[in-house]
Structure formats: C-alpha cells, structure tokens
Write a structure and sequence with these properties.
10 helices, mainly alpha, single chain
Length: 253
Amino acid sequence: MNALIDAVAVESRKARSARVLWSTGALLTFGVATLAAVVVAAGRTADPAILAKLGPQAATGDWTALLATAAQVTAAGGLLAFGVGLSWLTGREFADGTISGLFGLPVSRSAIATAKLIVFFAWAVVVSAALTVLLLVAGFALGLGAPDGAAIAGVARQFALGALTALIAVPAAWAASWGRGLLPGIAVTVGILVLAQVSVLADFASWIPFVAPAFWSIHPDVDSALALSVVPLVPLIFGAATVMVWRRLQLDR
C-alpha cells in the first residue's frame, strides 16, 4: 500500500507539471462552455434563419439549451480530451524513453500503472467540476437567471457525464501501454467515437457502454439510467488489462 501511495504522489507531481494535461483540460472546459454560450446567445436572437439552424431545443435560449448543447459537445469532445490525456499519462514513458528506468525502482510496475489510472480519474473529476462551474458562470453572464430545479438537475448530469466519459476512455490506457506510445491510445479513442456514432445510427446506442452516458445525459426523460450499469465494466476490464500489460513489460519487446 505504501508503494502505491508513493507512486500516486510521484505521478501526481508529473501531472501537475504536465502542459498536455493543463492544455487539454483548459481546451475542454473553456471550449465547451464558450460554444454552449454562443449557441444560447444565437438562439436568443430574432433571426428566423439562425433559429431554424439551431433547432427547437437550442433556440429556446435558456438553461435547457445551454446544458443540452454542453452535453452534446462533452459527449464527443470530452471522450477525445480524456483519451488524449490518458494516452499521455500511460504512453509518455515509452515516447520519452524513460520506461527502462522504471525497472530499477523499488515500486512495482503494476503499482505505477494503477497510480497513473488513479491520477487520471482525479484529473478528470477536476476538469468535469471546472466545466460545470464555467457553465454556471456562462448562464449567469447570459442573463438566464437563477437555475430552477430542472436546470440544477441538468447541471448535476453535466458533471456526471464528464466523470462517466472519463471512465469509458480507459481503453486508451490499455492501447497506449500495449502499443508502447501515445498514438495507439489516441487511435483507440477515435475508434470509440466512431463506434458510438455507428451505435446511434443502429438505434441500440443506450446499451452500449461507450454511448450510455451521453444518451442518458441528452435524453434524461427516456428510461436510460439503467444502461449506465454497464459503464463500470469498461474501466474494470481495460484498467485490469492495462495493469497486466505493465506487470509483464519486458525491455526486449
């Protein structure tokens, strides 16, 4: 246990000084909040052409429009951002050539991999919380007033969506570890996005773990919460696979 705590402390220091995580988190939080605010501001205009392009939900120009837009962007953009961040956390040792030095440490490689996953989840929760706060700030700045009960529930779903999206990005850690670099992890993240889109078109998206969080957040009125029960399978399976890859690492292959 002490070895894992030490590994988490070291990985946390790496993460705090990592420009990749800072820039990725900033792009996601400010990007989603800004885009959602722009859509709501456009929806509050009287131009019928703009209103027609935005659709009936976004055109309302209220908290519902702000949060619905944010959820749609977070579903795709959040997965990509978290996948990139996790690919860097687990693949940077191979890309920087520092992986060989880990074999001489008194901490096991499986503990290091576990620590990387723990730090990733902590970072994802902080990013999700920051995005939620920025959306509230954007709503007040747009003059939407105090959020009602439905809006508060939407804000809670937005935070949950961010955390759940981080969970389904864990396959990127396994790919980056197995492929020994950042690009395999990013490629798998893009593949998950494609799978999600195909699942939506096939009309069975709600029970696909890579789609269930977004489906639940965007369509809370539909009985989709039960489908969230399959989401923890993704981090459990691929998290264990990532630790296994690190445990069996060899310098010659």
